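The protein record quoted in full:
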Amino acid sequence: MASWPLIANPKQITKTITMTEPTLTRAFIGLGGNLDHPEARIQRAFIALNDLPGTTLIQHSSLYRTAPVGYVDQPDFINAVAAVETALDPITLLYALLNLELDEGRARSFKNAPRTLDLDVLIYGDQVLESERLIIPHPRMGNRAFVLFPLQEIAPELWIPGMGFVKELAAQCQDQAIERLEPALP
């Protein structure tokens, strides 16, 4: 029978537990909508992003008004970009964003249809990802003023993997109509 050494004083027992913080990744989220008070929906989405598990809203852009792309027989869009730090992996973040869209009444009736809220993972750290559900960086962001102008407002020196610097890409979109509605609140 094995015997264990007895320790007379429990204070002699020390146990080191190393708790590691989850790895946080800076991600940029595109927000847009054009139905049922999109300004208010985007403001609610900023709050909801901060409430996602393991996620903190770091900064968001002003709101911008832009003409629709693709299907043009619909109201103008309100757009913004948010920077978050998140412990969620890219696919889990995507599904969390899809749930936020559903919470705001998003229906996907046809491509480029009007919508209450659209949330896109634009950039996730320096990752390049191509899966059935998600492509990072967002494949069309490099030529869309409604993404690049708000992104440039909060991260003008950002490098978009495979595309270039956001400020240089935004300069190439000067011919696209976009109107800044209000400055970002702190």
Residues 1-11 have pLDDT under 50 and may be disordered. The beta strands are 25-33, 55-60, 63-66, 77-86, 118-124, 129-130, 135-136, 159-160, 164-165, 178-182. The chain is about 25% helix and 25% strand.
